[in-house]
Design a protein that fits this description.
The complex is a heterotrimer. Chain A has helices at about 1-30, 70-80, 90-110, 125-130; strands spanning about 35, 40-45, 50-60, 60-70, 115, 120-125, 135-145, 145-155. Chain A is an alpha+beta fold. In chain A, helix 1 (about 1-30) packs across helix 3 and helix 2 (about 70-80) crosses helix 3 (about 90-110). Chain C has 5 helices and 5 strands. Classes of the chains: A alpha+beta, B mainly alpha, C alpha/beta.
C-alpha cells in the first residue's frame, strides 16, 4: 500500500507542477489573457503531436516524458509578444526551445536529486516520428488566444517489471 | 497395456484455454508459497482454494455460480499469476471431463465415447445450439493441443473411428451425474464511465482522480485497448467493454494500482 | 556604456536588444551591444570587449551561466551581471548572487521589466566606475 501511495503522490506532484509551470508562463507573458484548460483525456497508442514540440524526458519515481506541443499560430503569437518579427522555422523552433527550458528547468529545480530531467528537446512534427513515445498519455489541452496546445505527460511507474529502457531513445 | 492418453504438455506460459470447460487445473505452487503482495478478487481466492486437481473448470465454476465468461476470467487471472496450471488428463479422465459439459441431447454411450475420442482431432465443428438458451460446446480442439492417442493406446480396432469404441471400464469408469446445463446469459459488459466515476469519487480532487484513472490505464496493454476500439478515453465517455481479456486487464490494474476490487455495479 | 547579452535563444537575445534600444527607454548611455549564444563565447567576448553590463542566461550549452559568471568574475571581480533565467526559484537566484550576479530576472519578462532591471544594473556599473576613479 505504501508504494501505491508513493506512486500516487509522485504522479500528483508531477502533473500539478508541470501544469502550473506551463500556465504560469502564459499568465506572466500576457496577464490579461490567461490560458484555460479543457477537459483532459487519455490517449492510447501514438500520442498526439502538433506542429512543434518541446519535450523533456523524466526518470525517477516514474519515468517517461513531458511535452508541450503547439500549433504554428500559437508560437507566432508568442514570437510577436517577444517583439520578434521573424517567424521562420528557426525562430519557431527557438521559441519552442524556450518553452522546453522553462519546463525542464523548473521541473529540475522542484524535484531535486531524486529525478533526472533530460536536456530539453525541440522537435518539429517530422522529428517526433522518430521518437519512441510512451503508449499511454494523459493529455491536457490548453487554450490560449483561440489556439489549442497540448500539454502531454506520458509516465510509467518505475517499479514495473516492464522494460526499463529509455522511452525516448531515438529510433534511429 | 497403457491406454492412457497423456494429453497436452503443461507449459509455463498461460494456456489459451483458461477456464475451458474440460480443463482440469491443479495448483502450480504451494499455497504457503504465495507472494505476499498477491491481490485477488474474492471469487478468485475462492476458486484458487477450491482447486484440488480433481475437478474440471466447469465443475468448479458451477460450484461458484459462475457463468462461462466469469469462469474464464477467473482462470485467466489465476493462470496469469502462475497460480494454477493445466493437469494432463488420462483418456478416462478426459471422457469423464467431457461428461461434465455438453448439450442436453440424449445420446448413446458409444456416441458419447466416440465424441470424446474424436473431438480433439476432427475438424472443428461446434454443436448447433439446441435452443436459444442452450450451451455451445467449447471447441477445445483449437486450444487443448491433445496428442493424438494411438489406436493401440486406446485399445481401438484398426478401422475407422466411426465404429463404436470398446469401453474399458477400468480406465474410464464413467459415472453419470446430472448435468448442469447453464443458461446462456448475455455477456457482462464493463462500463468504463461507471468505473471512472468510482475512481474520481474516491480521489481528494478532480485532478487527482483523473490521474488515478490514467495510472490504472497505464498498466493496461494498449494493444488490448486498441483491439477494442479504445484509442482515446475521455472521462465522460460511456464506453462498454465486452472483451473479457480487457476486463480482466483493467481489473488487475485497478487492484495493483489503487488496491481496489472491481465494483460490481460497473458491469451492465 | 557597453552591454553583453548572453542567451542561447535568438528570440530572447533579440527581445533584450530591442528593449534596451527602443526609443522610449534609455539604459544609461549604451554605445555598443554585443551578443553571445553560450557561456564560452560570453567569456571570450567579455575578455575582448570589456562590457560594462552583462545579461546572462543560466541554461546554455557548452558553458552554463553560472560557470560563465565565475569565469567573468575572474577577469573582472566587480562585473555588473544580471541573470535572466527561466529557472524560477529562490535557490537558483541565491546561487547566482553567490557566484557574483548583481540581479535576477525570471523569464518570461516584459520589456518594462528588463529595462527596469538594466537601469539598476547601469547604476551599479556607474558606481563601480566612480569608485575606481
Amino acid at each position: 500500500m505504501r508504494s501505491v501511495m508513493n506512486e500516487r503522490y509522485a504522479f500528483d506532484r508531477q502533473f500539478k507542477l508541470f501544469k502550473g509551470i506551463t500556465f504560469d508562463y502564459f499568465a506572466k507573458l500576457v496577464p490579461e489573457e490567461t490560458p484555460a484548460m479543457d477537459e483532459p483525456y487519455l490517449v492510447f497508442g501514438r500520442p498526439e503531436v502538433l506542429d512543434y514540440t518541446s519535450l523533456v524526458e523524466i526518470d525517477g519515481e516514474c519515468r517517461g516524458c513531458l511535452y508541450l506541443t503547439s500549433p504554428v499560430p500559437m508560437l507566432e503569437d508568442l514570437l510577436a509578444i517577444n517583439g520578434e518579427p521573424d517567424v521562420s522555422r528557426r525562430t519557431l523552433l527557438d521559441m519552442c526551445r524556450e518553452l522546453s527550458n522553462v519546463l525542464s528547468g523548473n521541473a529540475s529545480q522542484a524535484f531535486g536529486g531524486h529525478w533526472e530531467i533530460s536536456v530539453p528537446k525541440t522537435l518539429d512534427a517530422h522529428d517526433v516520428e522518430h521518437l519512441n513515445l510512451p503508449d499511454s498519455t494523459f493529455v491536457m489541452p490548453l487554450r490560449w488566444r483561440e489556439q489549442r496546445a497540448l500539454l502531454v505527460v506520458g509516465l510509467t511507474p518505475n517499479n514495473d517489471s516492464t522494460s526499463r529502457s529509455r522511452l525516448l531513445g531515438d529510433a534511429a | 497395456m497403457n491406454r492412457t492418453a497423456e494429453s497436452h504438455s503443461s507449459s509455463k506460459a498461460p494456456s489459451q484455454t483458461f477456464g475451458e470447460d474440460t480443463v482440469v487445473y491443479r495448483l502450480a505452487r504451494d499455497l504457503s508459497d504465495l507472494p505476499e503482495d498477491l491481490v485477488l478478487r474474492n471469487v478468485e481466492w475462492g476458486v484458487l482454494l477450491a482447486i484440488t486437481g480433481e475437478h474440471t473448470a466447469v465443475q468448479i465454476g458451477n460450484a461458484f455460480g459462475l457463468d462461462e465468461r466469469a469462469r474464464r476470467e477467473v482462470f485467466l487471472c489465476l493462470e496469469q499469476h502462475d497460480l494454477v496450471e493445466e493437469r494432463p488428463l488420462s483418456f478416462g479422465e478426459y471422457l469423464r471431463a467431457q461428461a461434465t459439459i455438453g448439450g442436453q441431447q440424449p445420446r448413446s454411450l458409444s456416441s458419447f465415447l466416440q465424441a470424446g475420442v474424436t473431438m480433439p482431432h476432427s475438424a472443428p465443428k461446434r454443436e448447433a445450439p439446441e435452443s436459444a438458451a442452450s450451451e455451445v460446446v467449447p471447441d477445445i480442439r483449437e486450444t487443448a493441443e491433445w496428442q493424438t492417442p494411438t489406436r493401440d493406446q486406446l485399445g481401438l480396432p484398426g478401422e475407422g473411428l466411426t465404429r463404436p469404441v470398446q469401453t474399458r471400464t477400468e480406465q474410464a469408469k464413467v459415472t453419470f451425474t446430472p448435468l448442469h446445463v447453464p443458461t446462456s446469459e448475455p455477456a457482462r459488459r464493463l462500463s468504463l464511465k461507471v468505473l471512472m466515476r468510482h475512481i474520481l469519487d474516491r480521489a481528494p480532487d478532480v485532478n487527482s482522480g483523473q490521474l488515478d484513472v490514467y495510472r490504472v490505464f497505464i498498466r493496461v496493454d494498449t494493444k488490448l485497448l486498441k483491439r477494442n476500439g479504445i484509442d482515446t478515453l475521455r472521462f465522460e465517455d460511456d464506453r462498454l467493454v465486452e472483451d473479457p481479456e480487457l476486463q480482466q486487464a483493467i481489473t488487475r490494474s485497478l487492484q495493483r494500482t489503487l488496491g481496489l476490487s472491481m465494483p460490481s455495479d460497473v458491469f451492465v | 556604456m557597453k552591454l553583453l547579452i548572453v542567451d542561447d535563444s535568438l528570440v530572447v537575445r533579440n527581445a533584450i536588444d530591442r528593449a534596451v534600444q527602443s526609443g522610449d527607454v534609455h539604459v544609461g548611455e549604451l554605445t555598443n551591444v554585443h551578443r553571445a549564444e553560450n557561456g564560452a563565447r560570453a567569456v571570450e567576448l567579455f575578455a575582448s570587449e570589456r562590457p560594462d553590463m552583462v545579461t546572462m542566461d543560466l541554461t546554455m550549452p557548452e558553458l552554463d551561466g553560472l560557470g560563465a559568471i565565475r569565469r567573468i568574475r575572474e577577469i573582472e571581480p566587480d562585473a555588473s551581471i544580471l541573470v535572466i533565467s527561466a529557472l524560477n526559484s529562490h535557490k537558483t537566484a541565491l546561487e547566482a548572487i553567490k557566484n557574483g550576479a548583481c540581479g535576477f530576472l525570471t523569464k518570461p519578462f516584459t520589456e518594462i521589466e528588463v529595462v527596469d532591471a538594466l537601469k539598476k544594473l547601469a547604476s551599479h556599473a556607474r558606481l563601480r566606475t566612480v569608485a575606481r576613479a
